[in-house]
Amino acid sequence: MTSRNLFFNLSKEDGKQRLWSMAVAFLMFFFILPVGTALVLDENIKQEMNHQYIISELQEWLGIQNGFMVALIIFLSLIMGVTSFSYLHSRQKVDFYHGIPVNRKHLFWANYMNGILIAAAAFGINLLLALGVIGANRISPVEVAGASFTGFLFFLIHYTMLYTVTVLAMILTGNILIGIFGTLVFNFYSLCLLFVLELSYNQFFYTSYEEGKTVFHRLMDKFSPIALFFANIEKVKSGEYSGEVLLRITAVIIVTAMIAFLSFWLYKKRGSEAAGKAMAFKISMPIIRIPIVILISLCGSLFFWFIHSSLGWAVFGLVCGALLSHCFIEIIYHFEFRKLFSHWKQMIVSAVFAGALFCSFRYDFFGFDSYIPEESSIKSVAVSFDDTADWISYGDIWQDAEGDYNWRYISSNEYILNHMELKDTVPVLALVREAVERNQRLDRSSTTKRDTGDNERTYRFLVKYTMKNGKSIYRSYELSGEKIRPEIVRIYENPNFLNAVYPVLTQTPEDTAWVRVGRGALRNVVSLDRNGTDKAMTEKILMTYQEDLKNLKVETMQKENPVGSIQFVTRKQADAETKRTESQNYWQYGDVTERGYYPIYPSFRNTLELLKECQVDVDSWNNPEQIKEINIDLTQFAEYMYSFEKQDMQYLTITDPKMLMEIMEKASVEEYSNMNPFITDRSERISFSAVSESAGSKSEMKYTIPLNQLPQSVTENIEKIKRGV
């Protein structure tokens, strides 16, 4: 009982000493919670939003999605941590406090817990007031109580962690400003170091995979309290990995307890004479200084490397970083200039260590770029080629609180690498070995790429190795060579590769509402499932197209270009279109409904025959005889002309039947020109419009063709126009 009364009295006296911080905490919570809640309600009620939407807005405001609360927790943890032990930085105050006939253990825990209880009380009271505001607006607080309570616990747990880190910094230092600086070091040093290491990784390693989470990225929330706070917010927001979130919250509690007891142990060891000094413990000086000097030295070397890509300048930057950072910290430690080089040997060791780090990336001491897993240790591989599937919409459709449909985007590399498992590793490893040999032949300091000829192509591809031990390894490669390689053909014609690249191959008839065909700006529904009447045709077209796409050979793609596109509308897309029709808002959900078009090649004869049955005029799609006129817009050559405004013609018109036939045989519909990865050409391409005539009606469509594949007379004419002749 005596101990309890003592703790209460000590907490009461400590509270009297920092009434201003209590008032600040209460006011900040007041304006964010009750006042903020009132503003949210007022805005939504004025706009006559539905009840469910208002509830979702309130849950977001009172839960962990509130960005203002995140900022307040960070700011308040700093204020409370500083005020809880600021007396340690004043010799008069520390003599007074340590002169009180109270065990230092009780004094520490009373001050420490007060910093948590003040924030918790201010938070809790204002949260109750916010719920009262909700009730006053005739909305049941019970509907938002769960999100509010979860947010309260979540923020309080992480506030305690950040607050405890500040307490540790205040105990380790003897000056308030140095203590705040120490808090920043504890929170941001590891982030800065890992960021610099990842920057070096991306800069120096040819095979670095920039889109993936590197080991440096994955470590960021493991060594930084503030990064852990933000990472946990994102995990909880996603609504997934509930077990992982629970483990992370448990880790926060354990880490907080460890830091708290470390702070208590240091508090008991701390001498009263430490007040006013920069650092309370002499042994902590090199422990703090050396890592900072290493980081700044490495930053200096990278800064000058990025400017000149010269090893000499990198050494200059490293030396400057080491000198400036070491001397600056020594001035802070000792408050006098004469101590600049008091520990010059440690400065040299720090600079050497930073130089070793730089060289390990610059010269790849660890063999990162040359690493190729043993074939026997690989379970499967996944490979994603650049410019192969950029036109495909990867992702899924989700509904928000109002029931509106939205598109959740996934990058092509992420989707493909996560959905592909190639057991046939031979062609992939053959490409990898050749790419590694090529990189080893290049001068690592060279920033230029070898030019490739017209008969060559540069393949840029990502590889994910899934090892038998469960580990995943990511690499990025670049390889120049022949346009068509046997290994590429073998990969492209692998069914597992196709299933990962083309999501339509895994689409089911049950998830398909209807079929839409596109040709230029025209979009036609060819098989609409009206109460099941067209279901058989929809299913037949889907399965037939899937079979045609699976059987598409690289040899065919070298000769053909897509002549149309087809979309198998999913059930969610169909629901979105129905809602759009009902609301008569034809701009709504366009980002959702216009995704999922795939190419139709002339060789897809089975698909084309089915489309004929659906009254689609596919015979006119690839019939050059119907083309009566070609118009080449000369404005696309304006960048070549010195006086384009003086040109009399805007279009170069071609009507000669022989030329028309020759051009159309090699041209491709501009809309589909990027869908064929094996028609890409390094030469300059031009676009033109072709006017066709069928059944007495005329239509116009945009095409594209390599400039060097035009008839010679047309090419010569264009070259004259470029020169302004």
Describe the structure.
With 725 residues, the protein is α+β, with helices and mostly antiparallel strands. It has 26 helices and 14 strands. The strands form four sheets. It has a five-stranded antiparallel β-sheet with strand order 11-10-13-14-12, covered by helices on one side. It has a four-stranded antiparallel β-sheet with strand order 7-6-8-9.
Can you give keywords for this protein?
about 725 residues, alpha+beta, 4-stranded antiparallel β-sheet, 26 helices, 14 strands, globular
Low-confidence stretches: 444-453
Major sheet strand order? 11-10-13-14-12
Number of E strands: 14
Q: How big a fraction of the residues is strand?
A: 5-15%
Helicity, as a percent range: 55-70%
Structural category is alpha+beta
The total of helices stands at 26
How would the global form be characterised? globular
Average pLDDT, rounded to a whole number, is: 85
Q: What is the chains' assembly state?
A: single chain
User: Biggest sheet, in brief?
Assistant: 5 strands, antiparallel
| Terminal CA distance | 103 Å
Radius of gyration: 34 Å
